[in-house]
Amino acid sequence: MSSVLVLNASYEPLHITSLRRAVVLLLKEKAELVEAAEARLRAEQVSFPVPLVIRLLKYVPLPHSLSRGPTRRWILARDNYQCQYCGMVPPRNDLTLDHVVPRSQGGQHTWENLVACCRRCNSRKGGRSPQEANLTLLRRPFRPRYAALVAFAEAGTPEVWRKYLDFDTSLAA
């Protein structure tokens, strides 16, 4: 069964739900259809498009704090499985995490100091800062909003969801 992205009334990503639950929310008029697939769901006397993204009609308050620390999986997903130095998208097992400010120089294990990095660039950088290694970050690392983390839990995030997940590109380098 496919998954559906649920947006808050303010168009912020809220969570991912099953197709069945999304249809129930639509039928009970608790949500509206935002994006749909070309395929259709059919019943005896009704037919409507398969929902990909729905929006709740009533606002649901979100927690303001993000208490979850960075993990390899979430850092790689945030960086779209792309080396943040050379832009290459290697196989996932060839990606490493890099501390932008090395731990040996006081760098912390935080969202704002970790990036996805290919093995080649990680070796080239070593225990130096990007400037010392003559490397430039494609995008400055950032702490994603709570709602964006929800999408990381779903393997193979559909392309149609990307515009709603809105990874904070205003923080880009």
What does this structure look like?
The protein has 173 residues and is of the alpha+beta class. Helix content is 20%, strand content 25%. The strands form two sheets. Strands 2-1-4-3 form a four-stranded mixed sheet, with helices on both faces. Strands 5-6 form a two-stranded antiparallel ribbon. The radius of gyration is 19 Å and the shape is elongated. The model is unreliable at 168-173 (pLDDT under 50).
Helix content: 10-25%
Element order, helices and strands? Answer: EEHEEHEEHHH
Largest sheet: 4 strands, mixed
Number of strands: 6
The assigned structural class equals alpha+beta
Strand order of the largest sheet: 2-1-4-3
* Shape category: elongated
User: Which segments are poorly predicted (pLDDT under 50) over 5 or more consecutive residues?
Assistant: 168-173
Residue fraction in strands? 15-25%
Radius of gyration: 19 Å
Q: What number is the mean pLDDT? A: 86
Distance from N terminus to C terminus (CA atoms, Å) equals 39 Å
Number of distinct helices: 5
